[in-house]
What we know:
It catalyses: N(6)-[(R)-S(8)-aminomethyldihydrolipoyl]-L-lysyl-[protein] + (6S)-5,6,7,8-tetrahydrofolate = N(6)-[(R)-dihydrolipoyl]-L-lysyl-[protein] + (6R)-5,10-methylene-5,6,7,8-tetrahydrofolate + NH4(+). Belongs to the GcvT family. Substrate binds at residue 235. InterPro entries: GcvT, GcvT/YgfZ/DmdA, GcvT/YgfZ_C, GcvT_C, GCVT_N, TrmE/GcvT-like. The glycine cleavage system catalyzes the degradation of glycine. By secondary structure, this protein is α+β, with helices and mostly antiparallel strands. Among the domains are: 6-88 and 180-270, Gyrase A, domain 2; 321-406, Elongation Factor Tu (Ef-tu), domain 3, CATH 2.40.30. 22% of the residues lie in helices and 33% in strands. The chain contains 10 helices and 21 strands. The chain has helices at 6-16, 42-47, 68-77, 97-102, 152-168, 191-196, 243-253, 263-270, 298-303, 309-318, and strands at residues 28-29, 37-39, 51-55, 58-63, 79-83, 88-93, 116-123, 129-139, 142-147, 174-177, 181-187, 211-216, 219-225, 233-239, 258-260, 322-329, 339-342, 347-357, 362-370, 379-384, 387-394. The strands form 4 sheets. It has a 6-stranded mixed sheet with strand order 12-13-14-11-5-15, sandwiched between helices. Strands 16-19-18-17-20-21 form a 6-stranded antiparallel barrel. It has a 5-stranded antiparallel sheet with strand order 7-8-9-6-10.
Amino acid sequence: MRGGGLWQLGQSLTRRLSQSHNHRKHRCFAAAAGELKKTVLHDFHSENGGKMVPFAGWSMPLQYKDSIIDSTLNCRENGSLFDVSHMCGLSLMGKDCVPFLESLVIADVAGLKPGTGSLTVFTNEQGGSIDDSVITKVTDDLIYLVVNAGCRDKDLAHIGSRMEGFKAKGGDVSWHIHDERSLLALQGPLAAPVLQLLTKDDLSKLYFGEFRKLDINGSHCFLTRTGYTGEDGFEISVPSENAVDLAKAILEKSEGKVKLAGLGARDILLLAGLCLYGNDMDEHVSPVEAGLTWAIGKRRRAEGGFPGANIILKQIEDGPKIRRVGFFSSGPPPRSHSEIQSSSGEKIGEVTSGGFSPCLKKNIAMGYVKSGCHKPGSEAKIIIRGKSYDGVITKMPFVPTKYYKP
Length: 406
C-alpha cells in the first residue's frame, strides 16, 4: 500500500508477487513446492497480531494491531522494527571481487573506503536496471550486499553466470549466500539510542552508509547504518537462531515506543522519495531516467565498464527522454499506471506509485514524464478512473531525510 487504502496494497502486492524461491536451511522454515516461505520470525509476527499476506513468495506481515497510518507515524516519531529477512544478503570474496562487481554495477566500488557502502544498480546491456542494491566494501577483498527478495532468483543467476566467465579468465572471486542469517531493519529517531543499549560498541561513531561487525544482544551481527525510510536507522544481519531474541530485546528496551511494522507502513515510508524496484524502476528504465545519476561514480562515468555503459553515459551527456518526478495532487490518491497529462491535456507520462501521506496530510506520487515537462512547480493533470485531477510536480524526497552524518 502507498497509503490510499487496502485495495491499493492488494494491487501492489499482486504486481510484485513472484514465484517462490528455493528455500535453504535456517533462513526460512521448510515449505512444500508452491507454498509461501516463512522467515524465522513468522510465528513471532502472528503472536504479536501480525496480519500475514503473500509477498515475493514469502508470508510477510502487512500490519499489526495498529493501523497502517498509525504505524507509519510511529516510525517518524519514535521507531519501527521491520523483518526484512526475505531479502537476500551475500558476500563476494577474493582479491578480484572489486573489479568483478564493477563489471556488474554502476558504483565506484574501488573508490569506497573499507567499511563504507553505497546504493548501486545492476544494469543490463540496454542500460536498464536489473535491480538496485546497497553494497558495502568491508575490505578490499570482501564485499557485502543485499538484493531484493523479488529479484533474488534472477540476481543470483546473473551474478553466478558472470562469475563463471570471470573466473574462467583467471579472476579470483567467490561468493557466499547468507541464508543462515536473518535481516532486521530498525528505523526512526529511537533506533540508535535503543540499539546502543544492546551493544558495547559506540554507535555514535558509526555514520550513515557505514558497516561494522559487532556483538548485539550477545550475537555476532553485521550492522549497516542506513535508512530506507528516510529516517536514521540500521539494517541488522543476525544469525537466524538469534533473530527472535534480538527482536524481543529491541522492543523491550524501547519500553513500547519502538513497534513492529509491516509492508503497509514500509510502502508509505518508502514513497517519501525512494525508488521501489518493480514499481518505480525496472529492466526498461535506466539509472539516469530513475534519477540515480548521482550513484554513478565520476571514475565510472569516465571509464564505463559496466553493462549498458554506452547508453547510460550518452543519457548523462545528452539528457534522458524521460525522468522520474514527484507530484502533489488533489482528489483520490494516484495509483500505478494513472496517466499524467500536461495542463493542456497532452499525455506526458504515467504514475508508478502513489498514495496519501499521513505525515504531510496530502496525496503524493512518483512517475515518469517526458523531459522538458519535469521542472518542479509545473502543473499537471492526473487521470484516475477516467476523471482529471490537478497535480503539481515537486522536488523529492517529499519528507526530508534524517540520516546520521558527521
